[in-house]
């Protein structure tokens, strides 16, 4: 009996890994693009992480992610007495385990240097081993030579920039070589407003990443209860489609119910997420409908009368009905989306009339 009980427990632990389906996170596609939910900064026991590579795949599957990148450190290997040093092995294990499960695993590594220039992730690499070099310029150049997408990690990390965020001369040099393609505007829940302005000014791709070292507990996609993520707007769900989107800046960072990105990208996302319904019986009655898994913190602003109405939290699947002012029209009203961040001190503003869909 005891043996049967042990076998039953073992079987129950194994079944979910193979039988569970990846939940679909309802974030709308943009016209011509598919929205993919990704985390491009993850560690395993092959550097300073606390989990085996297959665990990262299982977490992604459980949380509805489309793609992850394994980015173990090159220079920092605290478990090397127990785990053999193979800079590509963590990705190989995770990628093999992910086969057929619907989660793309992208090869990567973290180039780990003091400040300046700090830490950089290189993903879509071919071989991590040659990237290891004491000289950060040689390391980054080698990664770039492999066609890698290279990101400056956690630019506001207090351990390396304790007083203030600074763009160093070393970053200018790397950027001018064409070797810096992205920047983390969110890392492990920390938001770096200055990095948003740098990204827009320099044309860098914005990323939100978990930088996870320990295991994730199960967390559904609801406000304030999910790992930081990168939303990628790709032509197709494939490694090649993700790579093309990253190099062309079609991303947004998601963190704690906030979406951070370029104004054009966030504008398109909001227009696909919320629509306006006008009453057929009363022209002054309007309803905003949220059809997504996102929440929106909005304010209606009357541009004619310079009046700001109360803030509204438009939760997933919720509709909000309001009355226009007498003789007013939807053309006179803007929507400020407070949790759609387009700059260090900027949030998205759209015209209410742009949300109306005929039919």
Describe this structure in words.
The chain has 2 domains: 21-261, Metal-dependent hydrolases (TIM Barrel); 267-355, Immunoglobulin-like (Sandwich). It has 8 helices and 18 strands. It has helices at residues 2-19, 53-63, 89-98, 136-145, 169-176, 193-202, 239-247, 263-273, and strands at residues 34-42, 67-70, 104-112, 119-123, 149-152, 182-187, 190-191, 205-209, 229-234, 251-255, 258-261, 274-278, 285-290, 296-302, 307-314, 319-323, 333-343, 346-351. It has a 15-stranded mixed β-sheet that branches. Strand 12 (274-278) and strand 13 (285-290) form a beta hairpin. The relative contact order is 0.12. The model is unreliable at 1-19 (pLDDT under 50).
List the topology elements.
Blueprint lengths: L1 H18 L14 E9 L10 H11 L3 E4 L18 H10 L5 E9 L6 E5 L12 H10 L3 E4 L16 H8 L5 E6 L2 E2 L1 H10 L2 E5 L19 E6 L4 H9 L3 E5 L2 E4 L1 H11 E5 L6 E6 L5 E7 L4 E8 L4 E5 L9 E11 L2 E6 L8
Parallel strand pairs: 1-2, 2-3, 5-6, 6-8, 11-17
Antiparallel strand pairs: 1-9, 3-4, 4-5, 6-7, 9-10, 10-11, 12-13, 13-16, 14-15, 14-17, 17-18
């Amino acid at each position: 009996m005891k043996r049967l009980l042990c076998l039953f427990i073992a079987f129950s632990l194994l079944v979910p890994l193979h039988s569970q389906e990846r939940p679909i996170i309802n974030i709308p596609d943009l016209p011509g693009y598919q929205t993919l939910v990704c985390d491009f900064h993850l560690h395993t026991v092959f550097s300073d992480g606390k989990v085996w590579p297959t665990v990262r795949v299982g977490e992604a599957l459980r949380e509805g992610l489309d793609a992850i990148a394994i980015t173990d450190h090159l220079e920092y290997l605290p478990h090397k007495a127990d785990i053999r040093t193979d800079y590509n092995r963590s990705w190989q294990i995770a990628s093999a385990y992910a086969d057929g499960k619907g989660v793309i695993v992208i090869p990567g590594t973290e180039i780990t240097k003091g400040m300046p220039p700090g830490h950089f992730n290189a993903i879509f690499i071919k071989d991590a081993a040659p990237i290891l070099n004491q000289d950060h310029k040689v390391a980054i150049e080698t990664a770039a030579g492999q066609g890698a997408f290279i990101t400056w990690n956690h630019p506001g990390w207090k351990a390396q920039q304790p007083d203030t965020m600074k763009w160093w001369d070393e970053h200018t040099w790397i950027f001018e070589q064409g070797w810096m393609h992205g920047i983390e505007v969110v890392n492990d829940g920390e938001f770096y407003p200055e990095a948003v302005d740098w990204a827009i000014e320099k044309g860098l791709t914005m990323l939100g990443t978990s930088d996870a070292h320990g295991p994730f507990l199960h967390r559904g996609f609801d406000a304030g209860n999910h790992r930081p993520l990168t939303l990628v707007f790709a032509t197709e769900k494939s490694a090649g489609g993700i790579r093309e989107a990253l190099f062309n800046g079609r991303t947004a960072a998601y963190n704690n119910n906030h979406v951070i990105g370029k104004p054009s990208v966030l504008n398109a996302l909001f227009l696909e997420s919320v629509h306006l319904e006008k009453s057929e019986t009363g022209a002054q009655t309007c309803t905003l409908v949220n059809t997504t898994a996102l929440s929106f913190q909005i304010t209606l602003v009357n541009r004619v009368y310079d009046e700001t109405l109360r803030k509204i939290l438009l939760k997933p699947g919720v509709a909000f009905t309001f009355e226009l002012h007498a003789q007013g029209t939807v053309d006179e009203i803007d929507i400020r989306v407070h949790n759609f961040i387009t700059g260090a001190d900027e949030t998205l503003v759209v015209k209410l009339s742009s949300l109306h869909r005929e039919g």
